[in-house]
């Protein structure tokens, strides 16, 4: 899908706050509210906007613990990687999964209520995925910044 400057402006704005109304967005983009609604609908239908989500303050919901996990696999056979990817994608506590270069094969962002819950998750992960060679864990001491915003250039540089 070809994105013009208006689409790009809208993407930046809704990534910051998807709860804005078409009228509020129209005040920031030189388009009518109906044109904004059409563009947003088209970008959802075309898969540019994948979903909308609420960002929750962890302190307001029990102060979960965040873990950054570097995961190494034994063998990088496609079927074994696909099985592990499916397992990770199905776990609610695994927030993000990156397939990476370097010493680790995957980097995960995991959140659990406490270290005991994290330990249970990792025991289950290793038990259900025998291709895992090892993992290392970093515990987040504080949350400095969290987000999924992808900066979208306003001009047509691709």
Would you kindly provide a written description of the structure presented here, covering whatever features stand out?
- With 158 residues, this protein is α+β, with helices and mostly antiparallel strands.
- The protein has five helices and four strands, in the order αααβαββαβ.
- The chain has a four-stranded antiparallel beta sheet.
- Helix 2 packs across helix 3.
- The two termini are 12 Å apart.
- GO terms for molecular function: sequence-specific DNA binding.
- Keywords: DNA-binding, Transcription, Transcription regulation.
- It comes from Lysobacter antibioticus.
- Pfam families: AsnC_trans_reg, HTH_24.
| Strand order within the widest beta sheet | 2-3-1-4
Q: In total, how many beta strands?
A: 4
Would you tell me the structural class of the helices and strands?
A: alpha+beta
By CATH, the architecture of the largest domain is named 2-Layer Sandwich
Distance between the terminal alpha carbons, to the nearest Å?
Answer: 12 Å
GO cellular component, one term: cytosol
GO biological process, one term: response to amino acid
Pfam family, one: AsnC_trans_reg
Protein name: AsnC family protein
